[in-house]
Input
Amino acid sequence: MKAVLLVGGEGTRLRPLTYDVPKPLVPVANLPYLEQLMKYLRRFGVDEIILTACYLSEQIKAFCKTNIESAVKLTYVIEESPLGTGGAVGNVADFLHETFLVFNGDIVTDFDLHTLIAFHREKKAKATLALATVSDPTRYGVVDLLPDGDIHRFVEKPKKEEAPSCWINAGIYVMEPAVLSLIPRSTKVSIEREVFPQMAETHHLSGKVFESYWLDMGTPADYLAAHHDYLDGKISLEIKESRKGKNWIGERVTVASGAKLISPVLIGSECEIGQNAVVGPYTVLGEGCNVEEGAKIERSVLWNKVRVGREANVDHTIIGHEGHVETKAVLEHEIIRGAPRKLGAPP
Ligand code: GDD
Ligand code: MG
Output
């Protein structure tokens, strides 16, 4: 089956990290998320992926060329200017002649795609949305769902009092090519604001609620939450590091005397933890990080080659590749851009 991946957004809510790294290449459990997502899709028999990209698309292409291309057939369709979530799907219509999948590029889940596809076929639906249950639906597309799985209303990001339910669009769709005729071409179209509401009104939209782990990692709080949940064993992701007790530790990690790892932590290969430093709990260090003497890092995610200066204190913070925390600095709930990189350079 073919899957269309929507990875053209600017990732504004993860700025300034996404000034240098497009959201699909943001690491989750130390692997660029696109890689995690592709491994997940392959597990469900997806053998061809159509990447619809726009923002920092050269970086995405360069990354896939060196890391992914051999394992799955990849087609890149680059938008000169963003076509929106609907326009992006319409733009690749020529590749889609059978039932296909569409995936937002920032969804962390281990939900069983086979169940969704089976439900879609049984319903003979034009499009079927995977639906997650959340306590605050206002950040999402929200549906009014009938017991038989028909969606009869779809509202994107409604006010709290206008949300028809707590069932939200999980950003995972099974579609028939017939949907493509509902999308105007060569113009910006939001699938959530223009296509789904109309399909719901004409009874052509179905939905299936699922209970599996689901999270949109596109905000700093949810990005940290995805890591927290991973370290708590709530979702399984592919990682390179080896399990050691309650932690995951990469190769050639050095921990100096007096330094402490407080579980659970994920430490990438070649990290150096200095004397009396404290790392954890709920902390992820990318590859080649250097935590200097007496520094303390908790509930934070550091990307590759970050240096944390002596006696610095880092809490609930995300730091981009090659970022540097000054000696004795105190960072709480911060998002720190790493060293700027050249456009097109692999992350
Ligand atoms: N190709 C392309 N072109 N992709 C785009 C464009 C575009 O112009 N605009 C956004 N995307 C991609 C983003 O890269 C992302 O992977 C996906 O579309 C969704 O965009 P977000 O910006 O992350 O949307 P959201 O999180 O606010 O809302 C969407 O996801 C929710 C679930 O997390 C909607 O689909 C909601 O209805 C849904 O509930
Ligand atoms: Mg999103």
Observations:
- Residues 220-231 form the longest helix (12 residues).
- The mean pLDDT is 94.
- DSSP finds seven helices and 30 strands in the chain.
- The helical segments are 17-20, 33-43, 57-67, 84-90, 113-123, 191-201, 220-231.
